[in-house]
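The freezer alarm interrupted the setup, so I double-checked each line after restarting. Inputs confirmed:
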Amino acid sequence: MQKQAVVINQKDNVATAVQDLTAGSVVSFFVGQDVEQLTLCEFIPFGHKFALCDIGKGQEILKYGESIGSALKPIPEGSHVHVHNMQSNRGRGDL
Amino acid sequence: MKFQGYLRPDGKVGIRNYLAVIPTSVCAATVAFHIASQIPQAVALANQHGCCQIGADHEQTVNTLIGLGKNPNVGAVLVVGLGCEGVPIAKVAEEIAVSGKSVETIVIQDCGGTLKATAEGTRIASKMAREIAQLKTQEFPVSELSLGVECGGSDFTSGLASNPAVGYASDLLVQAGGTSMLSETTEFIGAEHVLARRAKSPELGEKIIQFVRDCEQRAKQMHVDIRGSQPTPGNIQGGISSIEEKSLGCIHKAGHSPIQGVLAYGETPQGKGLFVMDTPGQDVESMTGMAAGGVTVMIFTTGRGTPTGFPLAPVIKITANAETYSKMTDNIDVDASGIISGEKSIEEVGKEIFQEILEVANGKMTKAESLGHREFGIYKIAPTF
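Predicted 3D structure, all chains:
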């Protein structure tokens, strides 16, 4: 089976799609040595991220085992994580 | 692991043998290009600055021009001045000549205008081209190579695949005693703590944290969200959501070697190993800084696809995005998409990249070279007056 998504670090709460993934599909991916599965709430374009668990508003988004920003609103497991629902916490001269 | 290189009088080793035609100001750039267009071995630099600059900004332009003239890929230099610019023409020539290579100067106002300066400059340049063409290559260990790692037009494949593979190649070079340079300070924001942990001393780690904070502070003074510029609209379309995410992917291209030193823009490293240079995230200005610091070959990862080359060093292009590779095969040297599809490991592609560096050092032409890509730009740090 072709790889569907990648989780870079076991601490991460997002995975990256390595192909276009349709809404409602069940995707499998490795977290360390273990294969895990979840159902996607929505379409995830190639290269974009989806939530591996429910992420609360203000909670950090973790990729590479490090913070890449925080959730602007609650993000349910299996939904698209991108600029519409997460923000950068650095370089913010607008705040 | 050896390569055929050009030994310079200062003991440094180049992998190309250019005659550099360096205009000291934007006003001399057209004449510099006229001269270089007559001589196959000559390369002119598209300097857009060099006049009406003050303080540290002026110094940085002067030092960058000198550093570029000293680059080991340059066999000889013709400095072209207008005559009244702020950059001291004689000083640039004298400082480059400290490296022992042949340096000549012409001044447009002294020659009597464009046509006379072009004729006189071409006569000098053709003589210099004949002289440096006589230099034979010799065999050198890979420890004499100086690599710059760059990324541009990134997407998610950069951080996931091509940057880690380039990092693997960079580590191989460092382990073999060579030099590697990571730049693009903007793209350390959110990842500086990871780099700082790899610094050879706590003081050096603190220096990394500090120049990244300074860079972030300059962005904040503009009172805008850096997002939209960093990551760029193309990065965002490619799945990168924040500067932190971009940075954490970017730093992978320097592998896992300890950081030996932190360099100012255009500064030459002392010793060998992995160095970090404080440059903007803008690719061309970053590459110009690294070349002024003596880098002789560059690796450039891309996700969205970019054609960028550099006048004084071969640039090897790599993408792990299969679609980009098939669309832009004319521009991209190495296809790393096997990592994303799961057919190849990061280590396998890293070894392929290292092999490609050796081949390019031995004279293999990169696609950017074959297409005449010679993008150039000196980083300005203050307004022009």
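Quick read of the result. Chain B touches chain A through 33 residues (CB under 8 Å).
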